UniProtKB/TrEMBL annotation:
The keyword Secreted applies. Residues 359-373 have a biased composition (Basic and acidic residues). GO terms for cellular component: collagen trimer; extracellular space. Residues 1-18 form the signal peptide. It holds the Pfam family COLFI. PANTHER family: FIBRILLAR COLLAGEN NC1 DOMAIN-CONTAINING PROTEIN, INTELECTIN. Residues 24-58 form a coiled coil. This is Fibrillar collagen NC1 domain-containing protein.
């Protein structure tokens, strides 16, 4: 009897091990299917990306109208680079100067913009009408002097340039005599960002504090102030720095005050908006968002597969918008990867099928919605 029980136990264990091995083999097969599909999608994307870059180079090389120093952009705008860096990479022989570029792309958006391209670095510089030193005059109240900054570009094109860049900056200098930016908790000066909001920091990227470059380096004229001019000294001082928070740039307005004393002076100098344009040319492999596709030159709105955290996802990309604008990307569902389910437990299998069915249904409804529109 004991021997029979031992045999039955051995058979049970053998069957259990066999079932587990079958499940492991099934998992391995599923993994190989997913890995094959992943490699196929990666290869397909790399081929498309190579074709886009080749097409861009061909368009730039075949453009009959020189985009440098031209008073007007070439007709059609299709041959224009999106940043100075893309132009430099397409033709390393280009020299620094004024060029036409189209950051938001040729398919949608606004007219191309004329910028200064530093071909030594590939950086894009946007010109404006407040680059020279300007006197703020004499007035008393906070922001009583205000100057609007007019650029050789629209705000949308500059926002697109920032989206295509890893770094953007804009320098500000204020020469002062008895003309504080802030005194006794009162802000007499500020600048407005691209959305018109007031900003009180004059260097760096920390928009939560009033600070200048000397405050960041702790080298201000007085120890208890964060800007040289805030000391309100009756001798020439200066604050200078560079705003590096690209989401706020460009500076659209400069505001100064408390220069009513006879010996008070306030002179501001605003630098150009400068962006590296580096995100437009960096190869990141498989796209993880609509923004990656947009930066790689995709212009046709529609459904796309992107790489999610755990699996491929299907998203709707509206390329008539910028990545920072609402509804630029809409999540649709997970990519349908066909594989055989492993029946580890009937409850899990049922739940898994229900979730898959609901996801497909929602995806189909979403597709119908966009097709109808």
């Amino acid at each position: 009897m004991q021997r029979l029980l031992a045999i039955l136990l051995a058979l049970t264990v053998t069957n259990a091990l066999s079932t587990e091995l079958d499940q492991v083999r099934q998992l391995q097969e599923n993994f190989e299917i997913l890995a094959t599909k992943f490699r196929h999608l990666e290869t397909k994307f790399q081929e498309q990306e190579s074709m886009l870059k080749l097409l861009e180079k061909q368009q730039l090389a075949s453009a009959k109208i020189d985009i440098k120093d031209a008073e007007h952009p070439p007709p059609g705008h299709k041959a224009l680079p999106r940043t100075c860096l893309t132009a430099r990479l397409a033709n390393p022989l280009l020299t620094s100067g004024l060029y036409w570029i189209d950051p938001d792309g040729p398919a949608f958006g606004e007219e191309p913009i004329r910028v200064y391209c530093n071909m030594n670095t590939g950086w894009t510089e946007v010109l404006h009408d407040s680059e020279s030193a300007m006197n703020s005059g004499h007035c008393t109240s906070p922001g009583c002097y205000s100057r609007h900054v007019n650029y050789n570009a629209t705000l949308r094109q500059m926002a697109a340039l920032a989206e295509l860049s890893n770094e953007c900056s804009q320098s500000i200098k204020y020469d002062c005599v008895s003309s504080p930016l802030e005194r006794n908790g009162i802000s007499y000066a500020w600048w407005n960002d691209r959305n018109g909001h007031p900003q009180y920091f004059w260097s760096g990227s920390n928009s939560r504090v009033h600070v200048c470059q000397c405050g960041i380096e702790q080298t201000c004229f007085e120890n208890d102030v964060r800007c040289n001019c805030d000391s309100d000294a009756k001798l020439p001082l200066a604050d200078h720095g560079a705003i590096t928070k690209k989401e706020l740039l460009p500076v659209t307005r400069l505001n100064f005050g408390r220069t009513q004393r006879p010996n008070s002076t306030g002179i501001h100098t605003l630098g150009r908006l400068v962006c590296d344009g580096r995100l437009a040319v960096v190869n990141k492999g498989l796209p993880t968002s609509c923004a990656d596709l947009w930066r790689n030159g995709f212009v046709n709105s529609g459904l796309y597969s992107v790489k999610g955290n755990k699996q491929f996802e299907k998203v709707y990309c509206d390329f008539s918008k910028l990545p920072s604008e609402p509804d630029f990307q809409t999540w649709v569902g997970y990519e349908d990867v066909k594989s055989h389910p492993v029946p580890i437990a009937s409850a899990k299998t049922t739940v898994g099928r229900a979730v898959t069915s609901r996801t497909r249904h929602e995806q189909e409804r979403t597709n119908e919605k966009y097709i109808a529109n």
